[in-house]
Amino acid sequence: MIDLFQPQAGDEELAAVAAVFADHWLGHGPRSTAFEAAFAAHIGARPEHLLFVNSGTAGLFLAAELLDLAPGDEVVLPSPSFVAAANAVVRAGGRPVFCDVDSRTLNPSAEDIAAAVTPRTKAVVVLHYGGYPGDIARIADRCRRAGLALVEDCACSVASRVGERAVGTFGDLAMWSFDAAKVMTTGDGGMLHVRDAGLAARARRLAYHGLAQPTGLGHARVSDRWWDLDVPEPGRREIGNDLTAAIGAVQLARLPAFLARRKEIVELYDQELAGFDAVRVPPELPAGHTSSYFLYWVQMAARLRDEVASALFRDGIYTTFRYAPLHRVPAYGAGGVDLPGAEQAAAETLCLPLHPGLTDADVRTVAAALRKAVEAAR
Q: Is the Transferase keyword given for this protein (predicted)?
């Protein structure tokens, strides 16, 4: 089976994990702190504003909690998003309000978001679809002028940039995911960026039970009663650990090579599908934009898409559509909303295999099978 995603990990990651074992400390510790510092340098931020957590979902939930949503507060987000984003808003006490997206890029414009804003809107969450930064600079500017908090869901965009600026630094809060499917992985894990220093400190407390200070060996050096508890507000345990951080540090060092190969694969797909009018490849990136190339999506007539996906699966090629439109999910209470761009994208889009483990021959096999399946379905 040619799979959609495949993590790239090997001897370097194993050696890093072995070193953690040798140090006899597997929990959140010096390697977690070092990974936070390395990732901070990667995005051009200060280490104390970064927090390594145990999943991207935990990062989204923490971000939503930091918004201090009150009953009736609304949070605008694009309908094609991962379910964790809407769940985080709901669990924090807010109401998700879904906006439309461009049917080709699956990213919202500043105007799409503005159309969903009401007097009850408190924040905006933006996903950078497939690694494409989208209209983030204009969205951030409008949010600042409107007094709305901006959360960037950077799960797809670990190395995406607009000019020299990394995505995740435009908003007030940002989250990256390092699950097994992502461009770089820690198995499970995520990184939270908080622009405000006070909120960053609060996030660190909330991610470790709400404790204002640790109660273990490290604190024994500065307190005579290191076991005493100081809990300004209750939290959960959402911090990452040194095992996964050690893997993350190696993966971050390998990231340039991952990105180079992903770009080669994207360019080969473009070449192999050029001139095939029945299928549309991803649009070109705007000038100055850099993608992480997390997804490669093609689009075709809606009546063909499901049949084509089934034919490819029979041929040993796994494809899918990411991400299903959330405005269709009854649990979020968004019934009746008209989002034509999101609906069109959901009906016509198919994501093809994209990971550095693919050979050029694999890519050509996928492209040829796609052409064959589309022609048969037509």
A: yes
Residues 358 and 222 in one domain: no
Cα separation, 236 vs 250, in Å, equals: 28
Strand, coil or helix: 267: helix
Residue 126 lies in domain: 11-252
Residue that is written with structure tokens 């991952």 in the block: 258
Q: What are phi and psi of 60, to 5 degrees?
A: -65, -40
Grouping H, G, I as helix, E, B as strand and the rest as coil, residue 329 is coil
Classify residue 5: in a domain, yes or no.
no
Q: Are residues 226 and 365 in the same domain?
A: no
Could you report the average pLDDT of every consecutive run of 10 residues in the chain (378 residues)?
Answer: 97 98 95 98 98 98 97 97 98 97 98 98 98 98 98 98 98 98 98 98 93 65 71 90 98 98 98 97 98 98 98 98 95 87 98 98 98 96
Q: Which two structure tokens, joined as six digits, stand for 302?
A: 């809606």
Do the domain assignments include residue 372?
yes
What pLDDT is recorded for position 220? 54
Residue 128 neighbours by CB under 8 Å, 6+ apart: 107, 134, 136, 152, 153, 154, 156, 157, 160, 167
Residues 233 and 345 in one domain: no
